[in-house]
Amino acid sequence: MATTTLAPRAATYRQRSWLYEWLTTTDHKKIGALYITTAFLFFLLGGVFALLIRTELAVPGIQLIDPETYNQLFTIHGTTMIFLFVMPMMTGLANYIVPLQIGAADMAFPRINALSYWMVPLGGILLFSGYAVGGAANAGWTGYAPLSAQGGAGLDLWLMSLVLLGMSSVLGAINFLATIFKMRAPGLTLMRMPMFVWNTLVTSVLLLFAVPVLTAGLMMLFIDRNYGGGFFDPALGGNPILWQHVFWFFGHPEVYILILPAFGIVTEILPVFSRKPLFGYKAFVFATASIGALGFSVWAHHMFTTGAVFLPFFSFFTFLIAVPTGIKFFNWLATMWRGQLRLDTPMLYAIGFIALFLIGGLDGAFLAVVPFDFHVQDTYWVVSHLHYVLVAGSVFGIFAGLFYWFPKMTGRMLDERLGKFQWLLLFVGTNLAFFPQHLLGLDGMIRRIVDYNNNPGWTEWNFLSTIGAFMIAVSVLPFLWNVFVTLRQPKTAPDDPWDGNTLEWATTSPPPPYNFDALPPVRSERPLFDLKHGAVAAHAVALPAQRGETHDETRADAPEEVLGEPIEGHEPQVAAGEETPQVSEAAPDALPHEERPRTEPKK
Amino acid sequence: MTADSQLVQVAHVEEDSHAGHPQQGVNTALLGMLLFIGSEVMFFAGLFAAYFNARASALSLGQPWPPEGLGHIIEPGLIPIVATIILVLSSGSMQWALWRIRKGDRTGMNRALGVTLLMGIVFLGMQAYDYYELLVHYGFGINSGIYGTLFYTMTGFHGAHVFGGVIGIAIILLRGVAGQFSARHHVAVEAVSAYWHFVDIVWIGLFFTLYFLK
To answer: pTM, whole model, 2 decimals?
Structure first.
């Protein structure tokens, strides 16, 4: 595709070594790849910790791990999975995809982008170096005071690690917001942005306003621990409940930070693999924004049993969040309704996400009921809920995104059969590992304890849960093998393997360093569909097409269409002039400023 | 007309453009600074929340707030008042520098920046002296109960932000002396100015909260 004449200075660019190039890169795609790889390594590490925890819990009694080690295990497992796996993984995917989806050449601040990335491995090293100084942090990922005000140097390292990772997230959020607000392609208005970009936008707003509050809390705890401060010490006039307020004021937006990008990925995948436009684009946008806004008004539902919060308010607002989430669910289902479903691996993950996240979401609605929350506070019900939303939610979304965008990132298609096999293992394993924990929680099994009583049924459910955990672990192996084998094959993936709608599929796979030679004009939220099928087809299919109608022909043809070859009889100019008046109305103000028709054919 | 001919050529090298798209509205770098200030507001909001939480706890237990025996803190002495006046004035001189460069007056901007820098340094010096007085003469430290913790944490983090602002002003002053700014190109001055005003406003909030709120 490259037809641009390089500036004379470009000739003096020196080819650097592979290692130097990756260490110093400011290319959003390379930084995205670094994020994704780093996050996956931490996923494996956190997974090993989870296996140790589940192995110890397989049967009653203390067999493998002493209580102190166990406390460190679940603390580091939680912190790693949230701050070093899901967050960097989502940031990595967004780093790679968002500039491509909005038709930009890079992020707004490429060097700050590199800085954001390099803080992540540094934060990881700080966190794990606790093991080198006599024991890692052991107060849980929530680090409740006054427990977290005691303990060894591992907790100080945990604090510093979170401060560093928080700074990385805030800088990343600023970068995404500036990129999305300032660098969209001509014609790509806010209400034409792909849903993944919208979700990244809302996530970034949440990060921007939630993470600094956590940083303030971490600083207070550090001062209490090291300089004799009294923030959380009642003897000095402080209040340990303050930590919970500050932590959850960050912590609740944080759960949307972890799940909204996954919503975005799923919302990208469903229309493409259902061969239909997204149902209710505007409703999706407003639902995403209101989830973000409501996310700041429900933090104290984590603190019902403290007696320090106004229960009806926080219970009501927690229920309220189910409304926008419900809108999303119905829109997802309506998007698939009567579509021509293609059950490729990304779609399987997206469907698995919808099915299982629903369970996690309903668990959450249960927890909003104050009397029920009093009953299951600190039990395995909570563990089950958060793993259903984070494993069945975020992790399914991440795998959906990895399978969906892998061809764009590497130019190679992952093996579908291995992918489907992995999906099946993960789907069964997730349910096996976490569903029994509901029942244990209802029965009163307390979380974060190394041992449990041999009450009737507890051993069986725990043993099943451990089997499920190992199934999840085993399901990662076919993925690693899949990536390993695929990366050794030649780059044969087409530019647009899934017949996508958004701009990232308009460039080569993998994209050149500058991303685009040329951009299609953007006149809807599906610019690539418009390019492939012409404006008429775009608007015709956007109507609720029924089987047997004339538009069905277009839909059936769609998967065979190749980028840049318009359907005969659907010439855009004819369309704009004669057939559909709404196109000609929309076209003039939507026409990009820089539109310069190319005379040479592409390729 | 084929679909291919609809493609919009991306301009790779173009003056005043970002990624080939023309700049409109607020400058990207300035937007980045404004967003960063938004996150900083939330950081200080966390600290203020700690203050008001401690105050509410004390009042609900029927204890006096501020805790007794802190008259030397609560009654603002000469140093905090003068330091506050200096910081507020420095915000004015910062704005003056911005107005000068918007008119293309480099010398005027450099002078105003020099004055701002000086006032920022004097503020930090006075804060250090205030800390010294409190620590040595009154034995009031960060471990002297919740009020000491709050006082030193809030003013300390604010002082760190003033220090960051002073470094920023020094950088744009050096760049201004080197003649790098003009009426059209001075986004760094705009950004540092916005940050300095933010630091000033936080101090006004701190000053009234720590010294006047009973």
So the answer is: 0.88
